[in-house]
Specification:
- There is one protein chain.
- The protein is an alpha/beta fold.
- Strands 3, 5, 6, 10, 11, 18 and 19 form a 7-stranded mixed sheet that branches. It has a 6-stranded parallel sheet with strand order 14-13-12-15-16-17, with helices on both faces. A 3-stranded antiparallel sheet has the order 2-1-4, with no helix packed on it.
- Strand 12, helix 4 and strand 13 form a beta-alpha-beta unit.
- Helix 3 packs across helix 4 and helix 3 crosses helix 9.
- The longest helix is centred in the middle third of the chain and has 18 residues.
- About 45% of the residues are buried.
- The structure holds zinc ion (ZN).
- Zinc ion (ZN) binds next to helix 2.
Amino acid sequence: MKALTVVPLQAGSVAVVDMPDPVPVDGELLVEGLALGVCGTDVEIVGGEYGWAPPGSERLVLGHESLGRVVSVDSAPGSGFAVGDLVVGVVRRPDPEPCGACAAGQFDMCRNGRYTERGIKELHGYGSSLWTVEADYAVRLEPSLESVGMLMEPTTILAKAWDHVARIGERAYTEQHRVLVTGAGPIGLLAALLASQRQLEVHVLDLPESGLKPELVRALGATYHHSGVADAVSGCRPDVIIEATGVGQLVFDAMQGTGASGIVCLTGVSPTGRHLEVDAGAVNRELVLENDVVFGSVNANLRHYEMAREALEAADRSWLERMITRRVPLSQFADALERRDDDVKVVIDLAA
Ligand SMILES: [Zn+2]
């Protein structure tokens, strides 16, 4: 099989290599890779900043935003999967001696960091023309999602974020009417999609004045803002902010921008080493005097995959397709890893 690989922590090592076809063990499906979504984590791994190869292997097969088609269920009879099923593989696996969270099925909340992740941490990813996955960590999608199913994994990130926003809200009297999403990249747009499915009034902030991002926001019936966070916040007084840029200043502006009992969910990762001048006292007063909550969210567990599947199935297919701004064959993977200003989601076609 062909696989997109890197030597972790070695910039410039990314290459498509021939590897032996994977052989499913008991309980595993054999899957033909169809497509792979590319995200910032992949770009960081390719840049040598991140990533761990499986023990005993020099290279790591990249890819965690998967989509494939089952070609054999011989090793997983009785799993409920059939040849031809469209599937997505779950990214994270619990640590071998599960911590309390992993033992409770909440491996997204792993306490000890000894979890593993397909395509990121000690397990080969889904960036290959054939892959295997445990049936217990595969999610079947309906056939109509074939063109967009690789959006499933990023959608799970927002399914978890919204799940936690709802649970935090329920700790006391709650009214959530308005949400501001900062950033109209793939994560921000999917946050807005899920918010619109929750019947919230949705506002999205980004920089471009025109083009695809504003169009996709407005197609959800949401309001697009491009004149800064202060204007956006005063224009909508959000009950919830989903921060999807990781821009340090925006994170602190968001923390001070919610109404009473506001909830801010941080999903973006900021680079370290940059210094901001922040009025810590003002941030503290805002959080305390308004009963605000700020929390970070990453990864997703099986329950969130189920929620994400439902969200994608309920979404307008053509809206999801418009999010995919480039599709690149595996042989031209370098193009896919290069960020362009007008990119939203870039996808590598594995079947080509
Ligand atoms: Zn754990």
